[in-house]
Amino acid sequence: MMQDSKKKRDAILRQNRQQQRTRRLFDHEARMSEELYEMKQSHSNSQVTKLIEQRQNGITSSWAQQRHDALYHKIINLQSFVQEQSRKRVIERYGPGPHHMRFDVLTGQNARTSGTFVVELAPIDLVPYSVGVFLDMTAHGLWDNTVFYHHSSQHHVIAAAPVNFGTFDPKSHHFEALGFNRLEFPDYSNSYPHSLFTLGFSGNGPNFYINTIDNSDHHGPGGQVHHEIAADADPCFGKIISGHQALKRMMPDRSVSLNPNTWEDYDLTRIVSVRLISMDA
């Protein structure tokens, strides 16, 4: 308890110091702007005017950079707060982990061959928000009776889609009704990269995929153009630890259309269910 209190106190002190520094910088820029205005009122010499314009450009650039830095720190602080609240919530609802998810799937022609693989979710100290969102989605059964799809032109991932297997009607309205239409921010840790057989959210989700190769660069920081901040990365939140034979059957070695028009043009796997289990299960 004492250590936790000290850590929280230190974090608050760091935030206060950062806020004070930012305020001092803004106050400085305000004073400089006032001085420039006074100089304009009292000088008409062209050389002086030129110097004033150069100074203004420098101040504007400096102000914009400081504003950018202040907003960035505010975003980081908000994300840290959400992560900490998510960590506490995961422990309260699902225990401290490691958390293991069992995927029951049907593969092959017309999805008739049963298979199972187990995913160990990432440590909640690394990506608590991503882990919490996935646990909540599966607790509501949102990924039951959906699909994994694989295409011959896409060797690096097997993607999951929120559509009903068979009819392929979208389930997005179910996700949205429960508040899982997207993640609020890309919860990524450099300590948990997109290595072989890991699971990652596509952008801000809720779609996810299995990395069938090491995608650390392709899906890591700066590797995807769809993020609002260039240095962000797709959240990586779990890794397959058993059942790799079932995974291999999800990637059949056969030729399919390079330009798929319907779901039947893909190699499909039916996700029967996704459940949180204990390792004794």
Count all strands and give the number: 8
**Neighbour order of strands in the largest sheet:** 1-2-7-5-6-4-3-8
CATH architecture classification of the largest domain: Beta Barrel
Averaging pLDDT over every residue, what do you get?
A: 80
By DSSP (H or I, 4+ residues per run), the number of helices equals 5
Any idea how many domains?
2
At CATH level 3, the topology of the largest domain is Cyclophilin
**Topology pattern, helix = H, strand = E:** HHEEHEEHEEEHE
Molecular shape: globular
Distance between the termini: 34 Å
Rg, alpha carbons: 25 Å
Biggest pleated sheet: 8 strands, antiparallel, barrel
Helix percentage range: 40-55%
| CATH H level, superfamily name of the largest domain | Cyclophilin-like
Q: In percent, how much strand structure appears in the residues? A: 15-25%
Which residue ranges are poorly predicted, with pLDDT under 50 across at least 5 consecutive positions? none
Secondary structure category: alpha+beta
Output the CATH class name of the largest domain.
Mainly Beta
Organism: Cylindrotheca closterium
Biased composition (Basic and acidic residues): 1-12
GO molecular function, one term: peptidyl-prolyl cis-trans isomerase activity
Protein name: PPIase cyclophilin-type domain-containing protein
